[in-house]
Design a protein that fits this description.
The protein is of the alpha/beta class. It has one domain: Alpha/Beta hydrolase fold, catalytic domain (Rossmann fold). It contains five helices and eight strands. Helix 1 links the parallel strand 3 and strand 4. Helix 1 packs across helix 5. The longest helix is centred in the first third of the chain and has 21 residues. It is globular and about 45 Å long. The protein starts with a strand and ends with a helix.
Amino acid sequence: MIEPYDWAGGREAMVRFGPGSGPVVIAALPLFEEANRMRGFAATILRSLAENHGIAGVLPELPGTGESLIPSERIAISDLRAGFAAAARTAGGRAYSMALRSGALLDGSVVIRRRWHFAPQPGDALLRALRRIHRTGDAPGYGGHRLPDTFLDELPDCHVEPARTLRLEGDTRPADRLVPGRALWREPTPDNDLVLATLLADDLAAWVRMCEA
């Protein structure tokens, strides 16, 4: 079900999964091209949470991303965080975040019960990736996105807040759990991994229930 949410800068849309009461998981997609590659994967996780565990989920469009009417050249970290916070308030219930990759930069200032991150990407790593795309990509700007200097200047100071953290096997950075699967954010076109999505949904569900106990 698609419904709107309002934030200080206007109105955006969000997709709701599962029941209308109880705990709710708010998803923060990675930014820019990684969002396109992982949107279907995130929706699969939320659908599994709803259908297999009875836990609600919300996938919001954030200001300046996806189908938002705000152009990418006006994007700001503060607006992304404000949009995520507004979506969490609108979703109701007891909110938990599910952040993928650079989405983990957006849930730090949000009033939620707990945070859950998959392969979180800090701001300095996102900036390096964007600069690499800018140097080597065929599309104008940053993979077709025209980003303001103010946004890029903010990224080195954007950090990931403590959270339950899952990473793929072979990743040597700190994690609460390593899981098998493919790095979908590196695929040339959008793809899905149903086994990994189910595994992550199961972990999320068990974690939410533990937090709720």
